[in-house]
Amino acid sequence: MPVFExxxxxxxxxxxVLSGLLIAFLSFIRGRGAEESTLFGIxxxxxxxxxxxxxxxxxxxxxxxxxxxxxxxxxLYAFLPFFNILLxxxxxxxxxxxxxxxxxxxxxxxxxxxxxxxxxTGLLEYSWGVIASGGPCFGLFGLYSASGTVYxxxxxxxxxxxxxxxxxxxxxxxxxxxxxxGALLNLVNVLPLYGIDVYPLGNLTFIAMSIxxxxxxxxxxxxxxxxxxxxxxxxxxxxxxxxxxxxxLILFREYLAHLxxxxxxxxGMAWFYANFxxxxxxxxxxxxxxxxxxxxxxxxxxxxxNQILLLRSTSMMRQEFLSAIERAIGLAWADLLIREKGSNxxxxxxxxxxxxxxxxxxxxxxxxxLCDRATVEIDPYxxxxxxxxxxxxxxxxxxxxVPLMQNGVLQGLLVFGGKANGKVLHRDEIAFIxxxxxxxxxxxxxxxxxxxxxxLKDHLEGLVADRTAKLQRRTDQMTFELRLASVVQKSxxxxxxxxxxxxxxxxxxxxxMEVSGDFYYARPLSDRRYGVAIIxxxxxxxxxALLTSMIKTEIDRQFVDGRSTAEICSALGEELAPALAETxxxxxxxxxxxxxxxxxxxxxxxxxIPPVIVRSSKDLHILESxxxxxxxxxxxxxxxxxxxxHPGDRLFLFTDGLMDASDESGEAFGEERLYxxxxxxxxxxxxxxxxxxxxSVSGYRSNGSRSDDMTLMIVDVE
Length: 718
Hints:
Elements: H1 11-31, H2 35-47, H3 49-57, H4 63-77, H5 80-91, H6 97-113, E1 120-126, E2 129-134, H7 136-162, H8 166-193, H9 205-217, H10 224-251, H11 253-257, H12 261-290, H13 292-308, H14 314-329, E3 334-339, E4 345-347, E5 354-355, H15 358-366, E6 371-372, H16 373-378, H17 386-396, E7 400-406, E8 409-416, H18 427-492, E9 503-510, E10 518-524, E11 529-537, H19 541-558, H20 565-583, E12 586-595, E13 600-606, E14 612-614, E15 620-622, E16 630-631, E17 641-644, E18 650-654, H21 657-660, H22 670-680, H23 686-700, E19 710-717
Antiparallel strand pairs: 1-2, 3-4, 3-8, 4-5, 6-7, 7-8, 9-19, 10-11, 11-12, 12-13, 12-16, 13-17, 14-15, 14-18, 18-19
Helix pairs in contact: 1-2, 1-3, 1-9, 2-5, 2-9, 3-4, 4-6, 5-6, 5-7, 6-7, 7-8, 8-9, 10-12, 12-13, 13-14, 13-18, 14-18, 18-19, 19-20
């Protein structure tokens, strides 16, 4: 029975299979159903078929299983040329249906041939492992696969010459590099199938897949030479670490073999520390060797930040900012568009005026980074704002732009047209721009603020004096009008209540301002009937006070003996509807008629806080009523209700200003406190309890301020 053995030659196919599955998964997830990403995911899965068959060769299975696995994996792999053609046609935006159908038919035939003995005739065994032996049909498949690869390489190369967009050229360059790399690796695969003892480099497919994945899935690509530079730097760093360690292991291997566990642990810790110190020492030197431009950019950034933050003129700031960036990066041209106050228009040196619409401005609030025109054209990230951004690129004739945001406002827009040498921006140069833009935004904001302060300084004193004089005149006029209105209101509203036999009354109205929107009403209707009412107009000040005068006049007219309280309320609503409609105000009311003969209180509530009767037994009786407020749009049907009155009962009519008074924490005085005061002082004279309640409410309020008018009327039944 075959036995599983760990073999170093099994690592490359495993890496290719795992890499292919991972890249396919990422492509499906990131693509979200996009055709290009879906096709690339399928291509990655098919690419893993060939190294997948080699993985089986290193598992403990018999030769029949290996050969069967090779046939089935190749049947899947046979569709790779077809899906490659589909993918490249979509990337290059080509429509060649006839050719695609031809490749599909050839893939189906190749997949069927892979199951025949003429495709794989058996297995060949080498020092590095086992591989299928290619037959005549395999040769035909090889020609078909090679033709597909050659077609793809030629197609991509031709389009590379035609394309001028930087980002699309980069994308095609990576695809071309991946195709050539994959073709060379798979070419070596053919040799061992025909008896030549060479390790099948097609197992390194993960290299070509990774290159193509980077080109297709990434939207901001690194230049190929930059990627090569990073690779060389990594190799140099690895060699500088690996060579001394390897020499040390060779020289001291005999000594290490005689060490015990404790000594090995201690030596390992010392060895690790030595490597750590060594890497820290050589890494800066390697960085300077490979990243000299990055160090120069850091110096330029430091100088620029120190200089521009001290400049107070927008023109000087713009000149210094642009010249420093142009020198550091080698830009062909650059311009700083500065926002015009109070508008979305921006002015620069080369651009007289450019307008930025609100959508772009709002987008920059959440995307405060460099925007490259080539990236905007193809990256789905810019889909919602693409047309507006491209329009702005067209107006400025720029290839890149950087927003200068400060305090949620687009202060300026740095635009430039590329490097003088024609190369694209390196990632270090992009990082340099991203770093200095913050300082540029602050400097621009400071310069603009300094300029504004200078302009305001000349006019501030005169403006303040003029506004102060106008405000004082207006305040004096308002004070005079309020005092006059207060005098007029007091002359209209009842100065004191008239007490009929058998009743004792006490009432007080405390306005929030000079005039009040509340008032109480009490007068005899006949020898045996006595009318009481309390009114609360919405709002405060002069409008509410004027409306109370109108209501008072109308109540005098409607409050006649023989009418029920419901009829009085309905008449009030109908008569005052036009005035209420014009002002938009409304008022609540409680109207009551005390019949001394029957000792009953007939009443109707119009959205007002229910009055309270404290019985002689100190029980609390609340006069609930369901009538709506009196207003132009709220004319309702009102009903009269009644309750019995006993000797010693005390009736309280009040407005919501008493309950709504709040302390420093915002907690309202509330009905519970108010009801408790009513019950506790029910045996005191009416005027004395009225004073006690008003003093308690006023003392509860924070810092003596009032948020509403307060009115309270007490009626004692003897």
